[in-house]
Fold:
Amino acid sequence: MMSSSARDRMDAFRAHGFFVVRAFLDDAERAALRRACDVALVDARARSVETGHSTPRISLLTDGATCFQDDPRALERIAGFVGSGRVCELLSGLSRPGEEDTPRLKDAHYYHEQTRRDWDGDWHRDSQFGQPDPEVERAVVATTTAVHFRVALEDDDRLEIVPGSHARWDTPDELRIRRGADRATPDMQDAARLALRAGDACVFHAWSIHRATYRRAPLRRTIDALYAFARPAVRQWPSPAA
Ligand SMILES: O=C(O)CCC(=O)C(=O)O
Structure:
């Protein structure tokens, strides 16, 4: 039987598109995970004047081969965490009918404070990336699920979400903002700021309307993994010429 807290999480996810689990990691777990993620950030910052400095985040898995070459144990810890039963349990039951129930890990990122300047991110649904046609995107939003799972390794109140937007299409104002010329406006109606304390976890629907603002201070160290539930498309290869 589902525990009442699991039921509460699912209800919150269905209604608002996100839920928060307070104190998901204790101080020792959080410190160990932060040490592992910092290995990649220190490496990225040393290699680049952009990545890790003026980017919102670095990728922990797709750049892992280089970022962790001096400390492969750090990569093992991160990969173990984002694939752990404890994390997957939080994602259980979030898919739609017709989708797989098992989440497929797409990547893991590390959101960091800025080193050069403060800036405001664009409002978006992750579903819009690679979808120039809003009607095609609308069908993706209506039929599939992708989620971010994150843990703040230091206090983090940078993320803003429009609650409930995962379960409906945009209002005319929302569509104008996220596909228009003023995407970083502070004037998104009904947006809520998600304040996580160090150790808190949050799951949010990747198709929700959301954004973050990026600052030099305070320190931002949030690990975020992205998972999809949709069945992977089967790629049709052309048959070899006879
Ligand atoms: O927390 C953030 O910096 C924003 C996350 C975000 O917009 C995304 O990953 O799509």
